Amino acid sequence: MATFSELCIGKRLCAAISDMGWTEPTPIQVRSVPEGMAGRDLFGQAQTGTGKTGAYAMIALGRTRAGSRTPTTVVMTPTRELADQVSKEMRALSSHTKHRVVAVYGGASISDQVQRLEEGCDVVVGTPGRILDLHGRGVLVFDAVRELVIDEADRMLDMGFMEDMETIISLTPESRQTLLYSATLSEEVRGIAGRSMRDPVEVSVSRDDVVSDLVRQYYVEVKRNGKMDVLRDIMANGDPKIVIFCSTKKMVDDLYEGFSAEGMRVGALHGDLPQFRRDKTIRAFRDDRMNVLIATDVAARGLDIDNIECVVNYDAPLDPETYTHRIGRAGRAGRTGVAVTFVTPMEDRRIPSYEAYMGREVERVTRRQVQNLEISNPELKAITKERRRERRRIESSKPKVRAVIPKEKPAPPTDVTVLSLDIGKSSEIDRTTLSSYVMSCSGIGEGDIGRIGMGSDSSFVEVSSDRAADVIRAINSTKLRGRRVRADYAPEKRKCRDKLKDRA
Ligand code: AMP
After folding, report:
1. 433 C-alpha vs ligand 1 centroid, how far in Å?
2. Which residues lie closer than 8 Å to 210 by C-beta, 6 or more apart?
3. CB-ligand 1 contact for 52 (6 Å cutoff)
4. Domain segments of the chain: what residues?
5. Which of 8, 102, 143, 402 has fewest C-beta within 10 Å?
6. In the sheet that 177-182 helps form, which strands lie side by side, from edge to edge?
7. 4-209 fold
């Protein structure tokens, strides 16, 4: 069995790892850290849950000295959630080396991020749009970059960040080391790898490594209208901390509304919900203030919570990659979990495809057996209980505010201008992709985007009026998934009052 000291990452990193309670490196760490420490570029095929963040963080922190004025490491991530998680893990790993880590992403105050960058830092973790915005303002300088990490490259392409990624790659010094990770290897991902790396070592974490033995996998045959009853049986079986995956946003909404109407505290995650609500839901779930999360794949991607007892595939996913990704939400950080997949008679052929992909069996259970499965995990329950107790202790030690401070009225809606874009649902984009694209190409934050309406070939996007001209210019000079998009001011809807005036 390999040890961390054999990875040649230095005593201080090893001390931080020991503080974090990691006892041995994961397979991707064993296979990629020594090569990375020797300076080789790395092309890693790895999903979340394999320890890939730890792998590239060890390499970047192990190969750079702390105390630089401008960053020596830049990590690109597709979403702010991932940027947050990565920066937290890198900060923990830096507790002895003292590297300073700053996270930068849209939707959060840019002035705070500017200030932190100006104070000097070693590592910047962020989304491509915000990284470029800060670079454009002259605050984020790439001259000292030695390590460039591209995390979840496939997802970045899905979100329309191709051009931003390529721009960032081209702006960093050619002498850099590049570490690129992707769960899937499409032609496009290979293209980026080919253009950004020199003779990279390819490390693929075998699927056996990804789906650990720690997740016990079952499937149950159900009729389409019988899924709810089986789900209730599972939930009644020890009240597990559970993530329920659905294939559509509508199904997530339906389940959420059904449970909420019964007075249950449940959370819903999908791409049409505003970011602040998604953040709030993830926080409540992570903090054990709610036990049930209902989600689509996209919204739950990268969800890294270590005390999930059960994953239910309410809708069986089509492809095995999605299956392994979903069930990997359980069995995190060395703890056991259970995954139960519902298959309708039409869907039972999907199970063999999962099994072939993972090289592992998914055990068939009957409806009755589901009721007796050991889903609840006493070890996890104890952790949850301890965390709740700790939080209550912290809450009760906070000073109580006596005076009743009148709540400020919510700010009136800011002045918005409606833009029309000649792209819509027929180009297979959704609201999330469109808003990410608008933000990344123009550098505006989430607070500058209002409602989005989508037709099949056109869309309307509300943006803060003072940024409208910039946004139009930015959209008209970039591409979304390789396609040019035309943006303009939307023709104004005439107000009733004006029509009456005309008539008078
Ligand atoms: P990732 O694949 O980077 O999303 O990591 C999955 C989870 O495993 C995170 O919670 C990490 O903190 C944790 N982790 C990474 N490496 C190790 C390790 N060697 N031992 C235990 N936990 C780890």
Report:
1. 28
2. 46, 47, 49, 50, 324, 328, 358
3. yes
4. 4-209, 211-380, 416-489
5. 402
6. 101-104, 123-126, 73-76, 147-150, 177-182, 42-45, 201-204
7. Rossmann fold (3.40.50)
Query: 74 forms bridges with which residues in the sheet?
Result: 124, 148
- Ligand 1 in contact with 25 (CB < 6 A)? yes
**C-alpha–C-alpha distance, residues 253 and 280, integer Å:** 17
pLDDT tens sequence across 452-487? 888 888 999 988 888 899 899 989 888 887 788 999
Q: Note the pLDDT tens digit of each residue in 294-341.
A: 999 876 666 777 788 999 999 999 888 788 888 888 876 666 789 999
- Give me the phi and psi of 487, to 5 degrees please: -125, 150
- Burial string for 328-364 (b: 16+ CB within 10 Å, else e) reads bbbbbeebbbbbbbbbeeebeebbeebeebbebebee
> 333 CB under 6 A from ligand 1?
yes
pTM greater than 0.70 (yes/no): no
* Candidate from 7, 9, 89 with most ligand 1 atoms within 8 A of CB, to mutate: 89
| Domains 4-209 and 416-489 fall in the same CATH topology | no
Q: What's the CA-to-centroid distance between 367 and ligand 1, angstroms?
A: 34
Q: Phi and psi for 429 in degrees, rounded to 5?
A: -120, 155
Kindly state if the Cβ of 26 falls inside 6 Å of ligand 1: yes
Which CATH superfamily is 211-380 part of?
P-loop containing nucleotide triphosphate hydrolases (3.40.50.300)
Ligand 1 pocket, mutate which of 26, 149, 214, 306 (most atoms under 8 A from CB): 26
The answer as to CATH 3.30.70.330 being correct for domain 416-489 is yes
Closest CA to 177 of 137, 149, 209: 149
